[in-house]
Amino acid sequence: MYAQMVKGDGTGVRSPEQMSPEERAFQARIDADEKIEPKEWMPDGYRRTLIRQISQHAHSEIVGQLPEGNWITRAPTLERKVILLAKVQDEAGHGLYLYCAAETLGISRDEMFEQLHSGRAKYSSIFNYPTLSWADIGAVGWLVDGAAIMNQVPLQRTSYGPYARAMVRICKEESFHQRQGFDIMMKMATGTDAQRRMAQDALDRFWYPSLMMFGPSDAESVHSAQSMAWKIKIDANDALRQRFVDQTVPQAEYLGLRIPDETLAWNEDKGGHDFAAPDWDEFFAVLAGDGPCNAERLGTRVAAWEEGAWFRDGLTAHAAKRASRSAA
Amino acid sequence: MSADGVPSAELGANGNDTAGGSDTAGATAAETPPVRTEWPLWEIFIRGQHGLNHRHVGSLHAPDAEMAIGNARDVYTRRNEGTSIWAVRSADIVASAPSDKGPLFDAAESKVYRHPTFFDIPDDVGHM
In terms of domains, do B7 and B33 share one? Predict the structure, then answer.
């Protein structure tokens, strides 16, 4: 899972003449593929954009647990249940790695939680869609985690050290997620008629929201151009989306499932598939809070945080008591 | 915010302990009644295999050392990555500053004779 639509500030990439000496030296280090580490000088815009991007990514991991959590108690077998538990636990871990990386830039965990809980911070639009059947858990692993991997693998080379290291750890684990999803889809696609229908229905509902995960075309975006110059964004949104479609089409064929796009066709000239764009009006509506599950997701997250307060307080009190005893 | 004001969540991130808001908040938790404040930050080191050094893997928040170890187990060793965990309060780590890089490390660059490849040993001598 990752960040969509990270808004930078400023007006785009500046020429070396427009930069201060510090900025020029900073950009030279980036161009030489050096990693930037927490205490080192960095432009304010780099810091702010990274905080936004990494925290959005972290929020996506945390909220991303919820659609899958819905099926932990409903998994069809004990084995599927423990696998799903492990996957959801991984998502929590990914959120934690990323929150820590963001904290090195000078924002506190509590500030980030407050931004998420108040609705000011964004998370990936994909998690505002419901998981209605067990096949959806397969589709989420196969398509949603598949799309996330597309975006995250290049980010292992991102210029900010703590972010790149978190990404390496996440990518190692993400592969398990996609394969477990495809495994569920294979089982359903080779099952009874009813199971095949569920698998097709899940693909029908998750296809376009998965394409939206890469965000709208950013070919003209000055913010993306700046992020790419800083190497905190590696590939353009359209390039990643194309790669995802080209990878997924043969997988759907293997499953004997139909991608819900009449215009989908191989284009020999470009060496990739032509495909229909998702409904970007829907995307912006979901991002603005009007998706099928926005209120439910955020409500669940806030309730979990608030209902856990007594437990966190208890641990804090226990730690304080122990510390005062050992001091006495 | 200046780079020095960044609270440490990464080894080497804090040269200035008092600047870290979350760290100082945690440090005073022992003397005051529990208030809603962030748990202190811990740096986590894992020994991956017997015979290897502990290696920094990341950081996490925990109210005390025991919970830090427990959380480190859940966050950083879900796939057999470790045989031992160290948890160190981030505020207790002393780090060199980026500006000290020159004085600290440049001097070694001119001392090429410290490397075995500096010395040409004739092939006739055999492996050395």
Answer: yes
